[in-house]
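Exercise 7. Given the encoded structure of a 133-residue chain, write a plausible sequence.
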């Protein structure tokens, strides 16, 4: 069901993009279409800039560490993307030896030994667990 939702969201985004382009062309001709294309390019550049900023911050921290696992667990919400979780942790997660198709599992630990284990399905946070030391 999750894959269908992602596919529908991508199709809806493409249709919205085409609709904006059509409205812009109908209202202002080629100038409107070029303005709409410039806006889409600007959005893509802003998104890429955000992704690179998050990855730059995560590269500066040790893999699998977080300042406070309990605080991380309290800020997690179901449906968050991996990029949003990386922005919270400011570190890449450590991947345990669990391999399930279409599922990614990462864990972060703090200095006290508390661990947060997160399971992502189709790129979204599906489940997490706090393990106290």
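Solution.
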């Amino acid at each position: 069901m999750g894959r269908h939702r992602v596919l529908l969201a991508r199709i809806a985004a493409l249709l919205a993009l085409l609709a904006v382009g059509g409205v812009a062309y109908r209202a202002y001709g080629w100038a409107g279409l070029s303005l709409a294309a410039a806006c889409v390019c600007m959005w893509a550049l802003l998104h890429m800039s955000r992704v690179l900023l998050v990855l730059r911050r995560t590269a500066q921290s040790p893999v699998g560490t977080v300042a406070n696992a309990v605080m991380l667990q309290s800020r997690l919400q179901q449906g968050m993307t991996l990029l949003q979780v990386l922005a919270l942790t400011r570190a890449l997660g450590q991947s345990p030896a669990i391999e399930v198709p279409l599922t990614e599992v990462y864990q972060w630990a703090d200095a006290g030994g508390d661990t947060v284990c997160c399971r992502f399905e189709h790129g979204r946070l599906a489940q997490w667990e706090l393990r106290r030391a």
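Remark. The chain is about 55% helix and 15% strand. Students should compare their own answers with the one above.
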